[in-house]
Amino acid sequence: MTDPIKITLYRWAGSWGPFSVKIPCGECTLTTDILSDTFENELFGVPIKLEVKDWLSHWWEPLKVGAWHAPIVMVEGKVISQGEALNRGMLVQAVIQEWTKRDTLKGNIVYGKETCPYCIKAKKMLDEAGVEYQYYDVVKDSAALYRMIPEVKAIIGEKTPVTVPQIWMDGQYIGGADNLDTWLNKKGLNKVPDNVVNLG
């Protein structure tokens, strides 16, 4: 089991010495709602531990890393948002980057997009070969996009552009559709065209 990603929210609340917060923070409430909804949707299945702290009672903790204006959201000790309602895209990206460091891709996975002819070709080859796989549309699923990019960059290099499809078979990186065709041929899983007659 992968250790959960630690997310800390410092909300505008609490007390310190003679000071106390009595005015509710609308952006803090909105940030809490965004966190909950993102955990249930884009980050569903990612192990997360959320800690909510009152900013005024713990003001020195985020200040150590340069954050002072609640709401403050930190992922594994790094500030991703402060002073405004949380941008859920920033949250998803930060969490997936941390998760990628802890979790390896398993099974057969195809990352692609609906309008990509090579993605369609790869899915067709796998379907015809009878290979089960998980398909993630990186345009429609931001968590999939943020998961795919660091996985691929670690293999192809930071400066090389990432295209789709990106394919893993049996947890091993394959590459694109042409590489998949080669992999299927090596495994003897390629489909014989309908116009080929077996004379043997």
TrEMBL record:
Residues 109-174 form the Glutaredoxin domain. Pfam families: Glutaredoxin. The keyword Iron does not apply. GO terms for molecular function: protein-disulfide reductase activity. Keywords: Disulfide bond, Electron transport, Redox-active center, Transport. Belongs to the glutaredoxin family. This is Glutaredoxin. Gene3D superfamilies: Glutaredoxin (3.40.30.10). The keyword Secreted does not apply. InterPro entries: GLR_AS (IPR011767), Glutaredoxin (IPR002109), Glutaredoxin_subgr (IPR014025), Thioredoxin-like_sf (IPR036249). The lineage of its organism: Bacteria, Pseudomonadati, Pseudomonadota, Gammaproteobacteria, Vibrionales.
